[in-house]
């Protein structure tokens, strides 16, 4: 009996879900973002396919999608950060989704004002298909989070010729990070979130820091890298010696060939003259 009850309840809930059939899922309901970074708010939706107007099933089609900041419903004339019906949305808010299943929103160059709850709304060609999931995604803009350098090597003392990759990261989730790398306080030209040093030379020794390009307050603690001269020293003097000898041999060979060619050419002209 209890099992039957449970089954009935499930079928009923299934029917209800099927009848309404519209969901908006935010896989991430809260996230933090460093000011100046890019954050992605993943979102998927299933629109309602049709509704019964008392006479027949009327098919529904999504005609408008929008995202609002700090508004429960995001309907009517409520200002939105993205609106598929409007051409003048703030370019910082990029809709990566579509009109069918994907409602992902990306916020670039995150500002303090983005500390808010963002909600997605779909609107169909009939109000029966309008829907907002009020849960939303809450973004916390963090200005105090420092970047952190993660090294591919546990060792801070490396030998020359080795390879190391430093990653500039933060506890906040974000994407497409534009960072500035510093070595002993001087900015490097690299802007990616990872710094690849290979092959290491003694010149790579120093204190590395990184910060978000647009927010120097996020500068990390220094990462001290020491590249030891090590056993590389001998081969270092040996290599130019070998190169020199090989070069000499090549030059000698070229000279030899030229000489032979000249001699052959000389023979030919002599032959021509005699004709
Ligand atoms: C609303 O969003 C939350 C978080 O993703 C989800 O758990 C819930 O099922 C959603 N509700 C509907 C009706 O889509
Ligand atoms: C939605 O679109 C974004 C951007 O194209 C993509 O990264 C994401 O994987 C898509 N999500 C799903 C569930 O397809
Ligand atoms: C790196 O920092 C350490 C202490 O934090 C300091 O002793 C050292 O001199 C610094 N190295 C350079 C090259 O500035």
TrEMBL record:
Keyword Cytoplasm: no
Pfam families, per the entry: Ig_2, V-set
Keywords: Membrane, Signal, Transmembrane, Transmembrane helix
Annotated PROSITE patterns: IG_LIKE
Transmembrane regions: 238-258
Signal peptide: 1-21
SMART domains for the chain: IG (SM00409), IGc2 (SM00408)
Residues annotated as domain Ig-like: 145-220
Xref: InterPro entries: Ig-like_dom, Ig-like_dom_sf, Ig-like_fold, Ig_sub, Ig_sub2, Ig_V-set
PANTHER family assigned: B-CELL RECEPTOR CD22-RELATED (PTHR46013:SF4), VASCULAR CELL ADHESION MOLECULE 1 (PTHR46013)
The name this protein goes by in its record: Ig-like domain-containing protein
Biological source species: Oreochromis aureus
């Amino acid at each position: 009996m209890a099992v039957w009850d449970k089954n009935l309840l499930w079928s009923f809930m299934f029917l209800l879900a099927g009848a309404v059939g519209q969901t908006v899922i935010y896989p991430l309901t809260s996230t933090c973002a460093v000011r100046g970074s890019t954050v992605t708010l993943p979102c998927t939706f299933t629109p309602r396919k049709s509704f019964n107007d008392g006479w027949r099933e009327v098919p529904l089609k999504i005609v408008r999608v929008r995202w609002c900041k700090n508004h429960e419903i995001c309907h009517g004339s409520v200002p939105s950060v993205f609106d598929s019906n409007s051409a003048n949305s703030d370019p910082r808010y990029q809709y990566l989704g579509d009109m069918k299943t994907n409602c992902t929103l990306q916020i670039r160059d995150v500002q303090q004002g983005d500390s808010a709850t963002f909600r997605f709304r779909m609107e169909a060609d009939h109000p029966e298909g309008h829907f907002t999931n009020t849960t939303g995604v809450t973004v916390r803009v963090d200005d105090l989070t420092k970047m952190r350098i993660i090294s591919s090597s546990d060792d801070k003392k490396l030998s020359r010729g080795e390879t190391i990759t430093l990653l500039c990261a933060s506890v906040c989730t974000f994407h497409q990070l534009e960072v500035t790398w510093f070595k002993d306080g001087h900015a490097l030209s690299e802007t990616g979130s990872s710094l690849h040093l290979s092959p290491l030379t003694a010149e790579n020794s120093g204190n590395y820091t990184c910060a978000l390009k647009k927010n120097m307050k996020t500068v990390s603690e220094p990462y001290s890298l020491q590249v030891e001269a090590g056993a590389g020293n001998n081969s270092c003097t040996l290599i130019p010696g070998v190169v020199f000898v090989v070069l000499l041999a090549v030059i000698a060979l070229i000279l030899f060939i030229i000489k032979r060619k000249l001699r052959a050419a000389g023979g030919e002209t002599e032959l021509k003259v005699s004709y």
